[in-house]
Amino acid sequence: MAVAAVRRLAATAPVPVFVARGGGTGLLPVELAFDARLRLVVSPRHATVLVAAGRFPGPLGVAVDRVHDQLPAPRGTLWWTADVDGDRPAALRDASVVTDADPVGSVVALHRDLCLGRIRSDAAVLADDPPNRFEGRGDHGQGGEGMMGGVPWGRPMAMTGDDRDGLALDRLPVVLGPFLPGFPNGLRVHAVLQGDVVQEAKLEVLDLGSGPRLDRLDPAAGGAQHDLRWLAEALRLAGLGALAVRAARLARAAPAPASRAALARLVRRSGLPAAWSGVGVIDGEDARARLVRRLDPSAPEGRSPGPSLERVAEVLVGQDWSDAVVTICSFDLPTDRAEAVIEAQA
Amino acid sequence: MLSVLASASAAFGSVLVAVFLARGWRAGKKGLWPFRAPFLGGGISETHAWSRFHARYYPMTLVFVAFEMEMMFMYPWAVVFVEEGMTAFADMGVFLGLLSLGILYAWREGAFRWQ
Predict the structure, then answer these.
(1) What confidence tier does A20 reach under pLDDT thresholds 50, 70, 90?
(2) Do A64 and B42 lie within an 8 Å CB cutoff?
(3) Domains along chain A?
(4) Which site from A270, A336, B1, B30 is most exposed, i.e. has the minimal number of CB atoms within 10 Å?
């Protein structure tokens, strides 16, 4: 009785949603960003519903499987796509499919059914095994011999290396993305971290497939819309949620210059430009300058293509991870997002 | 009668706790490897994160702890301040002045720089 009441209450709460953007979606799906019935979260740990938007061929599909299994139960998956015959990774095999322009209703319904126990929580799709076998092997069950040998908890020990600060501490090789908040679609970073400082970085764009797109930008205002979507993503990344919602709302249609100017004023007052000052300098331009350029409604639309991935990777080395994410987010990297504008203008 | 009731409820409570713990332990045994992998946006970590890294707040912390301890001297001082008057005020002024020189020195040496 009491549990049923709690379930009913939970079913009416805003749905915590994690969005994994695949190919053909452009930037942050604004349809999901400003709706009060949803709450976009930055980690699958906080989500009940996984919205997989777009195409997920090959390695993108593997990544979506990993993220899918990281949602706590009860969890549900929704595949929002314009191409139902495309690649369908294991995580999306039993997912409800939405092809409409607006998936919010379906997300809410899925969440309600999950909370009320009408449908079962998604099962895990990956094997329930550690990355390497270790249990019961070696002197101490660490999967090997000696102090640094073995794979305790399935992963090898970190090894030391020289770092930026003249110390020789442990290096942490990680593969980050493509579904990190603020990352352009399909971008994956192979990084070596020490603490939160990037020691080595390599950027890679995963195959995004081809076919019909989900984001339909207004041909006349494609550039302005794209800028606003970019701004919504950047503001969300900076923790300015209310401003991000405002930008996302404007990005739905061709925005009026007056409302864009008002948004630009608010962003300037928020202190974000100052926080981004001096971060990620390429060709004498920092993240602040790139932000200010986007805020200007009179600026010519049509963006120059961003710098090459190699140049961005060079700038990332030696940065804190937070600055590295700001640097990556501040460009129009040559992935899916730039393509969206080109298509809209053609 | 009361003691029997108390023992019965204690026994019932213990059984309940044991059942919940056992259920939690069993649930924790299955389906967790993919779930408890660190969230890296669909990527993976090649080593685990039991790593030594540069604690860059370290000098700042030391300076903070040192100066926080100096503030202990202000408690006895506050007790005698009313009796002693201006003398105590001047003494504490000299003490805090010396401490401020220490802060300026730490500042010059870059202890407050985050790098």
Answers:
(1) very high
(2) yes
(3) 2-115 (3.40.50.12280), 133-157 (no CATH), 158-205 (no CATH), 222-345 (no CATH)
(4) B1
